[in-house]
Design a protein that fits this description.
With about 250 residues, this protein is mostly helical. It has one domain. About 75% of the residues lie in helices and about 5% in strands. The protein contains 9 helices and 2 strands, in the order ααααββααααα. Strands 1-2 form a two-stranded antiparallel ribbon. The longest helix is centred in the last third of the chain and has 37 residues. The two termini are about 45 Å apart. About 30% of the residues are buried.
């Protein structure tokens, strides 16, 4: 048993390369608000937890030279970063929806720092993103993220770099799906914005002496927040179900 310790340590390092790199980009887990040390220990803990499932795929190729080990680690890091990035792109749909909703109800000037987007974001977009994370965890969507990581070892064998063209096409398709999902989630507020601004324009034409903009901004905020509060629950559940369906269908 002792003589097999270096082999198992090498296998654990190879496994950690992919699991850790995925975790560094996985939604919620990878946010800047989570300290790097916590993410590192989470990656080690997750690797240890997945050892019983994935060790049989890693141990057979762990008996390699130092140069071969370096090549395997680079390949695993590339695969892990690509997988984590694709899942993160799809998750950005909720941030897109939150930004569109903020635009429609006039809250784009209320900005806060959002670690999930690594920059300034409308406060409503930040709120929707946090609520979406809570709903996804409550509906066990994170289990599907881990399931996708486990199944990736069947699609992408250890130490083999996948076809970069296929990954690029997948990333472009997922980016389009994410944008379409974000727009569809914000559809109620987009319809409201069109109707409200159309009515506002008609009122301005019918009664030019009326200072419509002094009335419009508070009214827009009141109606927009009311509609957002009424539809937010359905929006978040739809988002979580869409992410789950996307993962179950193999990212198609």
């Amino acid at each position: 048993m002792i003589e097999d310790l270096p082999l198992h340590a090498t296998a654990f390092l190879i496994l950690f390369a992919r699991v850790g790199s995925v975790l560094m980009l996985l939604p919620v887990f990878s946010e800047d608000a989570v300290p790097a040390q916590i993410r590192l220990f989470a990656g080690l803990g997750m690797t240890l937890g997945l050892w019983s499932f994935l060790s049989v795929k890693v141990i057979p190729i762990a008996d390699v030279t130092d140069i071969q080990l370096a090549g395997i680690l680079v390949a695993e890091l590339i695969v892990g970063i690509a997988l984590g990035l694709i899942m993160r792109i799809m998750y950005q749909a909720i941030s897109i929806a939150g930004s569109l909703i903020s635009l429609q109800i006039g809250l784009t000037s209320a900005m806060v720092f959002d670690p999930a987007q690594s920059g300034q974001a409308p406060v409503l977009s930040k709120f929707v993103g946090v609520a979406a994370a809570v709903v996804c965890f409550a509906m066990a969507v994170h289990h599907l993220w881990l399931g996708a990581l486990i199944k990736s070892y069947g699609l992408f064998p250890v130490g083999v770099i996948p076809n970069t063209q296929d990954f690029a096409q997948l990333a472009v398709r997922v980016a389009g799906n994410s944008l379409a999902l974000g727009v569809s989630l914000a559809a109620p507020l987009l319809v409201y914005g069109i109707v409200f601004n159309t009515v506002l324009g008609l009122v301005a034409r019918v009664a030019p002496a009326l200072q419509v903009f002094f009335i419009a901004q508070p009214l827009n905020l009141l109606l927009g927040v009311t509609i957002t509060a009424a539809t937010l629950g359905a929006t978040l559940v739809t988002f979580a179900n869409s992410i789950a369906t996307w993962l179950n269908m193999g990212w198609s």
